[in-house]
Amino acid sequence: MNVLERIVDATRSDVRRRQEEVPLRDLERQLAAPRQDRPFSEALTRPGVSVIAEHKRRSPSAGDIRPGSSVTEVVQAYERGGAAAVSILTEGQHFGGSLDDLREARGASRVPILRKDFIVDPYQVYETAAAGADALLLIVAAVDQRDLEHLHGEARALDLDVLVEVHDEDELGCALEVVDADVIGINNRDLVDFSVDIERTFELLSDVPAGKTVVAESGFHSREQLDELERVGVDAVLVGEMLMRAPDPEAACRALTGADFEHDTMY
């Protein structure tokens, strides 16, 4: 098993455990209450390159990241720094995240929230909506085509936006077969060996049809890089580890977004 296969296998086991603890019918009841509307996909298409700032506790390749910090302080720093959206990594065994992290972020921030996880079962789609996310990530490499289309349809039926992540031409072809898959993420990180090649974004971008929203993921850390992404037509960039490791996440986020003002805030 490679790293991705191990994570997906562990995810399926963990989903079965959570289903026993909280049956699907309980999640469906939670969704009966109206959710606040924070459109994720719209936040990515404002002028310039939108920054999706990620909260990530650890990774298989990097180990612990920013130990001792709280979700609230990190996501509020991102919001003040001009992030268009935040991504909350909720996978537990390998990345140290949880749905509690997502719920805390929802209570602490007013920007759209992406649940980043290895979504392989419709139960996770209901979890995502019940926890207050506005969007979820679907990784093409983690599921087959039939499941990809089914999970995408389930998410849209629950009014969740979907970021469909690809790493190569074949995966992009699978993503483009999904009806209404309008937000495409190009991940420069190979999920088999976790190596990063930022040229991946530029190589695949020309194959993405006009009208799709494109998110570049992994390996970007400077305003100059974002300016180059804007020149070639990328709409947004997802940045995690660099911001999490920064001494001042707000300042680091501001340096990427170009925000030169203090957001009015309720905090």
Structural features, described:
The structure is a single chain. By secondary structure, this protein is of the alpha/beta class. The chain has a single domain (3-257), classed as TIM Barrel (Alpha-Beta Barrel). The chain is built from 12 helices and 10 strands. An 8-stranded parallel barrel has the order 1-4-5-6-7-8-9-10, surrounded by 8 helices. A two-stranded antiparallel sheet has the order 2-3. Strand 8 (183-187), helix 9 (199-205) and strand 9 (213-217) form a beta-alpha-beta unit. The longest helix is centred in the first third of the chain and has 19 residues, at 3-21. Residues 261-267 have low confidence and may be disordered.
Question: What structural keywords apply?
Answer:
single chain, TIM Barrel, 8-stranded parallel beta barrel, disordered C terminus
Total discrete domains: 1
Percent of sequence in beta strands: 15-25%
The portion of residues assigned to helices is: 40-55%
Rounded to an integer in angstroms, the radius of gyration calculated over CA atoms is 17 Å
Number of helices: 12
CATH superfamily, called what? Aldolase class I
The ordered H/E elements are HHHEEEHEHEHEHEHEHEHEHH
Output the CATH topology.
TIM Barrel
Cα shape: globular
List how many beta strands DSSP finds. 10
